[in-house]
Amino acid sequence: MSTVHESKHPLISHKLSKLRDKNTEPKKFRELVREIAGLLAYEATADLITTPVEVETPLQTMTAHQLKEKVGLVPVLRAGLGMVEGFWELMPSAEVWHIGLYRDEHTLKPVEYYNKLPIEPRVSVCIILDPMLATGGSATATADVLKRWGVTKIKYVGLIAAPEGIQAMQTAHPDIDIYLAAIDARLNERAYIMPGLGDAGDRQFGTG
To answer: Which fold has domain 4-205?
Structure first.
C-alpha cells in the first residue's frame, strides 16, 4: 500500500491557514499555492536518485551528486497549474505535461478533455499536481493515463485531501505515494472537501 505523507511543517500550516481564508484574494491565493507547492516539492523529492559527478571547487576537485532521474510535472488542468511554479523553482529542468479533466456535476466522475503527452515518455518520474484530492476521480484517472503512457514511477502531490479521495487513490494505485499539506474531515453532498478551501481553480483564477 502506498504511503500518505501529511506535512507537519509549520510554514506549510501557516500558509495553508491563509489559503483557507475566504477573504484571501486571487493574487494572494496564487502566491500561497505556489509557495506551499514548493515546500511540498522539497518533501516529495527526497528519494530521487542521484549520480556522482566530479566538481572542481575553488579549492580542489571533489565528488558531488546531481539528479539522475528526469522528472515530469503533470498538473491536472486547470487547478494544478498554480502548483507548477513552486516545483519549477527547485527543478527548472523538469518537463511539464498537461492532462485536462473535469468532474461531471451529475455523475461526479472525471471526464478527460485534453491530453498532449508525447508518444513515448521522456521522463522516468512523473509528479501529479492537483490541489484537491476529493473523490479521487481526477487523480486516479490521471495515474491511469500516465501508466498507459509507460511511466512506472509516479507520485501525487496535493494541498488538501479528504479520506474518501485517499482511499480511492490507494485502492486504484497502491504503488503511488501521496504528499499533502493537510488531510481534512470529509466530503459534503456536493463532493467538496470539508472544511477545505472551496474550489481551488475558481479561487486561483477569480472565476468563483
So the answer is: Rossmann fold (3.40.50)
